[in-house]
Amino acid sequence: MAVTKDKSISAALATASCALLGTGVTTAVDAQEVPKWDFNTSLLYYGEDESRVQDLSLRAIVRRLFVDDRSLTVSLTVDSLTGATPSGAIRQDVPQTFTRPSGNAAYVVPAGVLPLDDTFLDTRVALTGNWQQPIGETSQVNFGFSASNEYDYFHLGLNGRFSKDFNQRNTTLSAGISIAQDEFDPEGGAPIPFTSMLDIGDTSNRPQSQRDKDVLDVILGVTQVVSRKLVLQANYSYASESGYLNNPYKVLSIVDGTTGDTIQRVAPGPLSGPSHEFVFEGRPDDRAKHSLYTQAKYYMDGKVLDASYRYMTDDWDIDSHTLDVRYRWPLSDDKYLEPHLRWYSQSEANFYRLSLVDGAPLPAFASSDYRLGKFDAITAGLKFGWKNRNDNDMSLRIEWYQQMGSIPAGQLIGKQSLRDNYPDLNALIVQFSYRFSK
After folding, report:
1. 255, exposed or middle or buried, with CB in 10 Å at 0-12, 13-18, 19+?
2. Domain that holds residue 186
3. Best CA proximity match to 384, nearest among 328, 323, 426
4. Distance CA 39, CA 63 (A)
5. What are the backbone dihedrals phi and psi of residue 369, each rounded to the nearest 5 degrees, phi first?
6. What angle do CA 63, 66, 67 make, to 5 degrees?
7. CATH number of the domain where residue 175 is located
8. pTM of the entire predicted model
9. What's the number of domains the chain is made of?
10. What is the pLDDT of residues 150-170, one digit of tens each?
């Protein structure tokens, strides 16, 4: 029985180690004489309350295993996005009219309602490929590409990673790099920052359509097998973005410095353009991020505790903390439960503004995008996994996401303190996965 137990512990640690390194479990060399296919598919639903963003995502990962621990992995993801997302404007006690991003129509937001842009409709197709192979007996290299296309966005990237084992394969050092270029072709064109939302048909403040962004990511990591039951990992990563970092669909309200109400504007006619003063946001054209990530996996007689912590800071003054805990609890040889709890907290960007005061000098940068604000978020859920009659893996994951934000007190003007400027966001996440080999 001791031999059986030692083998199960070794298998669990192998699984944990591969998960920490971001790779799947590789079949033993003596079992790889015949190449093997591995298929992993999933269908995910993400839905926010209040008729906000809805996402239906289908993903398929195909892995071809070759002899000598070589493998080719290709994944295809198709996302269908619908719903409404905050425009950045603030609530008012009167109805508000906005020109749509295309510049060809307008829409009205009722009094007291958070302005949402309900034109959020897109389909994203993403393709990735990765080749992995050993170099000698203790080193491994993999390299790949990524590409995705949306209605107004195109991404193309390359990546590579090298890892080497030491200390009788109990220690692994790794280094990776990725580069990408993204192209943004916004609906109606890319607006000049801090220019006013215009009347229907007027696109004079959008002289340039396509804009580019360059991304560089570097990661250094170490993984350590501490004992037969414990595996630890630590990563440092650096990310640099430069180019067009604005969201061309986000605006800010221009408000009265005393009442906090958005300044009304005289429109030529009903639904001919915005009813109030709104300007497009402006962000810095570069961003540098530093992250430290740590993870531990602990095996306990069939159960596995997986805990991680991530700290991120950037030159936009956003600091974030992420704590993630999963506990895999086997119910039998072919069934398990996995509770999951994730806590996230971030500070606001140094140019985050709820609104801009009429007549005051414009700042160098400003955005009211709630994702750049101060908020906490909790994700809690449960995953149930089982094997079917053909010994294939299946799982169902159900989670609930809640986000709670706040506005710095110094930014609230007049009546703004009486309104819910950062409403809570709730979302349901459901994912079904099916994995098989042949």
Report:
1. buried
2. 2-437
3. 328
4. 6
5. -60, 120
6. 150
7. 2.40.160.40
8. 0.89
9. 1
10. 989 999 999 999 999 999 999
